[in-house]
TrEMBL record:
This is Cytochrome P450 26A1. It comes from Goodea atripinnis. InterPro entries: Cyt_P450, Cyt_P450_CS, Cyt_P450_E_grp-IV, Cyt_P450_sf. Keywords: Endoplasmic reticulum, Heme, Iron, Lipid metabolism, Membrane, Metal-binding, Microsome, Monooxygenase, Oxidoreductase. Its cofactor is heme. It catalyses: all-trans-retinoate + reduced [NADPH--hemoprotein reductase] + O2 = all-trans-(4S)-hydroxyretinoate + oxidized [NADPH--hemoprotein reductase] + H2O + H(+).
Length: 324
């Protein structure tokens, strides 16, 4: 691996441009908190062209700030509360279908479809029947657009989850009950630690500056690596092991920030963070309380391109879980 050979900051090439790749909490801190001062977001030109300059991720300065504030309102606690029944309904419908699907379900494409439906209903205000009619074409058109660009892969944790925390009512979820699902929250955190879906972020140096003894010239691209930063984080001993319990402990007061950054940080922090967490929790609750499942190929090989996904599409057999 390049990082082991060259260290936490090294020069590489991205789409033919000189680029510096940065890893490690302390270095990342400078990049994420240096937005507008040292660096500025700059996605590769293909992304900028396809998404356009009017999307939040391509906006800058005060325009970015104002728009971000407005979008964040759509993900406030009150707003999220209203989305929960819609998310739960979509997830339940999908899981019911998976339980009768033979011989198996390809979970990765199915999850993309499910996430797409939820996004259509919540973010675009579609009615369920409107999506059923055109779903296939819409999904295909959308996939065409985001091919190799941006998607939301979500891992299904392997096993060993607690099925129901302290006899809670998991049929009628709300923000409060979701917040009480502490262990489920830790499972999600651990999943996003081991396989952060967005492996890193793109910046450009606004001026020549020094980072930990290395000079980064003005105009060079900077990539900050989320997956490598998680990999070298000292706060996670036994890093290869899937141990949700590690998040049950209170973090040490002096443990440096930016060791765990699945949603980025600073002024470019993900706007969909709370929405994604709510959605993933609801999904986990539904799958764990209703299904047994077997990954037909065993634990998947994950690949990055550009987001993280299971190479085999995750063929899985679901059967109904009956409480004993
Ligand atoms: C598990 C799910 C998700 C992960 C891991 C994730 C990760 C990230 C990361 C790492 C960034 C920062 C990129 C950077 O520093 O340049 C980001 C930004 C962003 N995310 Fe997410 N995201 C997720 C879900 C979502 C969802 C559901 C939405 C929308 C509904 C969303 C919308 C955005 C937007 C608009 C930005 C750009 C923010 C800005 O430039 O100010 N994300 N996301």
């Amino acid at each position: 691996m390049k990082r082991e050979k060259y260290g936490y900051i090294y020069r590489t090439h991205l789409f033919g441009n000189p680029t510096v790749r940065v890893t490690g909490a302390e270095n990342i801190r400078h990049i994420l908190l240096g937005e507008y001062r040292l660096v500025s977001v700059q996605w590769p030109s293909s992304v900028r062209t396809i998404l356009g300059s009017d999307t939040l991720s391509n906006m800058h300065g005060s325009q970015h700030k104002t728009k971000k504030k407005a979008i964040m309102r759509a993900f406030s606690k009150e707003a999220l509360e209203l989305y929960i029944p819609v998310i739960q309904q979509e997830v339940q419908t999908a899981v019911k279908r998976w339980l009768v699907q033979d011989p198996c379900v390809l979970v990765y494409p199915e999850m993309k479809r499910l996430m797409f439906r939820i996004a259509m209903r919540i973010l675009l205000g579609f009615q369920p029947e409107q999506i059923w009619t055109d779903e296939q074409q819409l999904v295909e058109a959308f996939e065409e657009m985001i091919k190799n660009l941006f998607s939301l892969p979500i891992d299904v944790p392997f096993s060993g989850l607690y099925r129901g925390e302290n006899g809670m009512d998991l049929e009628n979820l709300n923000i409060e009950s979701l917040e009480q699902l502490k262990y489920t929250g830790c499972v999600l955190k651990e999943t996003l630690r081991i396989n952060p879906p967005v492996p890193g972020g793109f910046r450009v140096a606004l001026k020549t500056f020094e980072l930990n003894g290395y000079q980064i010239p003005k105009g060079w691209n900077v990539i900050y690596s989320i997956c490598d930063t998680h990999d070298v984080a000292e706060v996670f001993p036994n890093k290869e092991a899937f141990q949700p319990e590690r998040f049950m402990k209170k973090p040490l007061a002096d443990s440096p920030r930016f060791q765990y950054i699945p949603f980025g940080g600073g002024s470019r922090m993900c706007v969909g963070k709370e929405f994604a967490k709510v959605l993933l929790k609801i999904f986990l609750v539904e799958v764990v309380t209703k299904c047994h499942w077997t990954l037909l190929n065993g634990p998947p090989t994950m690949k990055t391109g550009p987001t993280v996904y299971p190479v085999d599409n995750l063929p899985t057999k679901f059967t109904s879980y009956v409480k004993t």
